[in-house]
Amino acid sequence: MPELGRRGVIARYGHRMAIDGIEAPVTLCEGGTPLIPAPRLARELGLGCELVLKYEGLNPTGSFKDRGMTAAITQAAADGARVVMCASTGNTAASAAAYAARAGMRCVVVVPDGKVALGKLAGAVAYGARVVAVKGSFDDGLRLVREATETSGIALVNSLNPARIEGQKTAAFEICEALGGPPDWLCLPVGNAGNITAYWKGFREEVSAGELPRMLGGQAAGAAPLVLGRPVERPDTVATAIRIGNPARWTEAQAAIDGSSGLVAAVEDAGILRVYRMLAQLEGVFCEPSSAAGLAALAGEVARGAISVTGRTVVCVLTGHGLKDPDAAMASARPCVAVEPRLEPLLEAASNG
Ligand code: AN7
Q1: Which residue among 33, 95, 192, 275 is best mutated to probe the pocket of ligand 1, counting the most ligand atoms within 8 A of its Cβ?
Q2: With 70 as the cut, is the pLDDT of residue 89 above it?
Q3: How confident is the model at residue 335, as a pLDDT?
């Protein structure tokens, strides 16, 4: 077969992943996402750093979850699983559904009723998953899924599954490869805390202890258990992907933050949405609101003088594509204008926008 672009993270890094089945990977050619320089945004936010965006929304189902899901489904296939299950705020659901479809497995996804962005639900149903909406939070869903998978033979594909971490750590490898070394800072949103765990593991495997980047996690103010130091009973935020009150990988996330001399910061929804709009309108990079939480946390911490990143290389991970949440996009930008099919109103509209 000729080399046709992206090969998938198991083809590239399977020899560095602790999973079974890498000789027959279940893949959609995920990974290999670009690092996009964002100089206008860095200037506008007064960061003074070299700001680079790791645009994970360009994965096959539109989020970073695909890196972990190729590993988890490949492992599940090697184990002989016929059915997989996850709790999800949406992106894990879409990703699990796609990779399960590819593996010929049944997929059951458990989502918080009414709190999943439209593009994610559309993905999950399109890929043929059984979508179960629980009248409760993501945390309620995860508790149920842990119980349901304990004895039933159904494979759990949340990031509690170590294969998910093995797959997601490849993003750290790619960043080091593309930059010719690790960045000084890595900023990312934190929800269930699998991704910060995975990046930290990837960096520790890739670079020497003295070179490790500092990790900066962003949480939504209404769903900030790591910042508060206690679970949040009723998490709430416009950033529905990270509407999580009791992260499964809490201990590992805290170890990444402490071990890297990093920090975790809370950002109000207004701050998240501001950076979300700036990413699209200053750099042409459209991510979902949750994805902006890492950069919003960085901007907030720099603005209040808690940290300085002057002259540093900073990578912000944009975890999901903007089209995942069309409702958020329409609600946070200027509305469309309708005109009669004549030149005058068109020119009028063109000149005042
Ligand atoms: C766009 O899909 O938890 O801290 O169930 O979709 O590893 O949980 C999604 C999480 C960040 C947080 N950005 O990552 C799910 C889910 C986006 C996300 C996160 C999620 P973790």
Answers
A1: 192
A2: yes
A3: 87
The total number of residues written for the chain in this structure: 353
285 band by pLDDT with thresholds 50, 70 and 90: very high
For the segment 150-162, the average pLDDT, to the nearest whole number, is: 96
Q: Is beta strand 155-156 parallel, antiparallel or unpaired with respect to 185-189?
A: unpaired
Does the Cβ of 240 fall within 6 Å of ligand 1? no
> What is the per-residue pLDDT for 3?
56
In CATH, what is the architecture of 36-62+172-331?
3-Layer(aba) Sandwich (3.40)
Backbone phi, then psi, for 186, in 5-degree steps? Answer: -125, 120
Q: How many CB atoms within 10 Å of residue 210? A: 5
Domain boundaries along the sequence of the chain: 36-62+172-331
> Residues 224-228: what's their mean pLDDT?
98
CA 196 – ligand 1 centroid, Å: 10
Instruction: Give 54-83 pLDDT, tens digit per residue.
Output: 999 999 999 999 999 999 999 999 999 999
- pLDDT tens string 90-106: 999 999 999 999 999 99
CA distances from 156 to 92, 159, 160 (A): 12, 9, 8
* Cα(67) to centroid(ligand 1), Å: 13
In degrees and rounded to multiples of 5, residue 50 shows phi and psi of -85, 110
Separation of 1 CA from ligand 1 center, angstroms? 34
CB-ligand 1 contact for 242 (6 Å cutoff): yes
- The finding on whether 159 has its CB within 6 A of some atom of ligand 1 is yes
Indicate whether residue 294 lines ligand 1 (CB < 6 A).
Answer: no
Q: Is the CB of 74 under 6 A from ligand 1?
A: no
Q: With beta carbons less than 8 A apart as the criterion, state whether 89 and 244 touch.
A: yes
189 in ligand 1 pocket by Cβ < 6 Å? Answer: yes
E strands in 192-246: 214-220
